[in-house]
Amino acid sequence: MAQVLVVTGGSRGIGAATARLAAERGYAVCVNYLHSPAAAREVVDSIVQGGGRAIAVAADISLEDDVLRLFQTVDEQLGTLTALVNNAGILEQQRRVDELDAARLNRVFAANVTGSFLCAREAVKRMSTKYGGVGGAIVNVSSVAARLGSPGEYVDYAASKGAIDSLTIGLAKEVAAEGIRVNAVRPGFIYTDIHASGGEPDRIERVKSAVPMQRGGQAVEVAQTILWLLSAEASYTTGSFIDIAGGK
Ligand code: NAP
């Protein structure tokens, strides 16, 4: 059966690397994005040129109607969903907790937490044997921030990843007997654009000496682990976490 994958935030960074690698391994891929149509198009074009199947769908995962439209588009254009990578995530300018306001907290939690819950819900409705599906796999992209806390940078972001860890544990148990595995990766310091959102594009150069392996990671190193968790090679693994953080 064809494997059909939704990667949220597939236009850039870890999501783009995951979409490309998944296509190489035979998945038909939906590249979701929000603000970067050209980047999403580039990912899709490279997959199609390589002989794969992919579509790009603009949708803000924090908005319920957008999520419904995203998954309906996949149903219509790619077929039966078998995999979800809950990857899209944001962080904002580096601040202490005593400088955060409700508007920012709501933006971060809406994108990182509500968005992942809504996408997981739509995936379960399609994959669970309880709903007549054939099963599947979900990988949530958490962060080592969930256990480090990101003091002085973005504790709100770290807390949103803590919520993703709890989602992973709880949902894995809810759907384990319905043919769906749910796992998470916790990347450390990975070279992507996300650090610019925090106001420090070269953040990894500052922090990498604190990593036991003495370097930042590449997006493809995260993608390889995600693809393993999605694959049949991880058939007895659910509710699990893999840190991809050079020992941090
Ligand atoms: P990135 O380069 O900034 O890319 C973020 C992606 O998410 C983009 O494709 C973006 O789409 C999309 N996105 C953001 N908000 C969205 C929304 N509301 N709806 C749909 N798409 C949305 O980030 P990254 O570093 O690859 O991060 C990917 C994931 O890894 C995130 O969950 C992040 O928290 C996690 N992570 C990253 C690191 C790291 O060091 N990089 C470490 C730990 C965890 P547009 O391009 O269209 O805006």
Give the topology, please.
Elements: E1 4-7, H1 13-24, E2 28-33, H2 37-49, E3 54-58, H3 64-77, E4 83-86, H4 102-127, E5 136-141, H5 145-148, H6 155-175, E6 180-187, H7 194-197, H8 203-207, H9 219-230, E7 241-244
Parallel strand pairs: 1-2, 1-4, 2-3, 4-5, 5-6, 6-7
Helix pairs in contact: 1-2, 1-9, 3-4, 4-6
Give an account of the 3D structure.
The protein has 248 residues and is an alpha/beta fold. The chain has a single domain (4-244), classed as NAD(P)-binding Rossmann-like Domain (Rossmann fold, 3-Layer(aba) Sandwich), CATH 3.40.50.720. It is 45% helix and 15% strand. It has helices at 13-24, 37-49, 64-77, 102-127, 145-148, 155-175, 194-197, 203-207, 219-230, and strands spanning 4-7, 28-33, 54-58, 83-86, 136-141, 180-187, 241-244. It has a 7-stranded parallel sheet with strand order 3-2-1-4-5-6-7, with helices on both faces. It is globular. The protein starts with a strand and ends with a strand. The model has no long low-confidence stretch (mean pLDDT 98). The structure holds NADP nicotinamide-adenine-dinucleotide phosphate. NADP nicotinamide-adenine-dinucleotide phosphate (NAP) is lined by residues 8-9, 11-15, 32-36, 39, 60-62, 87-90, 111, 115, 141, 143, 187, 189-190, 192-194.
